[in-house]
Design brief:
This protein has one helix spanning 31-46; strands at residues 13-15, 19-21, 51-53, 60-64, 69-74, 80-85, 92-99, 104-110, 114-119, 125-130, 136-141, 151-156, 161-165, 171-175, 182-187, 199-204, 209-213, 219-223. The protein starts with 12 loop residues before the first strand and ends with a strand. Helices cover 7% and strands 43% of the residues. It has 224 residues and is mostly beta strands.
Amino acid sequence: MSFVNQISDSDVYIRPHSGIILPQYEVHVNTELLKKLRENFLASAVYEPKELEVYSMVTKLVKADDKRQIHIIDKSTKVIEKTFHSGHTKSIKRLDIWEGKGSMIILSCSSDSNVRTFDFESAKFLKELSGHRGRVNCIGISHDLDIKSAMVVSGGEDATVRVFYLGSGRQRLCLIGHEHPIMGVSFTDPKHSVGGHELIASIDQTGEIGLGVKQSGVCKRILS
């Protein structure tokens, strides 16, 4: 959440857990742009968000442990307010949080090939998002405030990027084009687009970056 740089016509900035910002005109791909994009995306991708601040509730932390449990913690007192088992059968790789109209949902992805969602207040299990073969390395959430339109993006060891509806858990898209495990994914900020399209950005283990169209799943380009 700390990327506050001004956007210029040759810069792209990635904000961890908030998507990526792209200028509202065609991005000019050059060596400096790719370097900056890759550095910022990798900074997000290698971050270990097994401890995640809830930004609308600044005193709360959401944390996963090695026993596949998820804890909600009061940041100021360090008191664990709630603990629940994620239901994952292998280690949790990432956490994220969707904040919508009157509700909040915790998301977790795991080496067991699945993404799972939970109600923040009750800790009730909601949905399992399945489709990947092998571990799911990363997740991202769209900026939609309505759960009916909110989407989850995930990247896996199987080199695919998959998009699911948050509410139903149904898979909407499967983006291919990468040849190596995906390490970071994000939706573009809806205030910005490239060629009129909102995009899904992904980065794989080799640093290759993919840009796909959110609405159709068509791969716009792979930046190597």
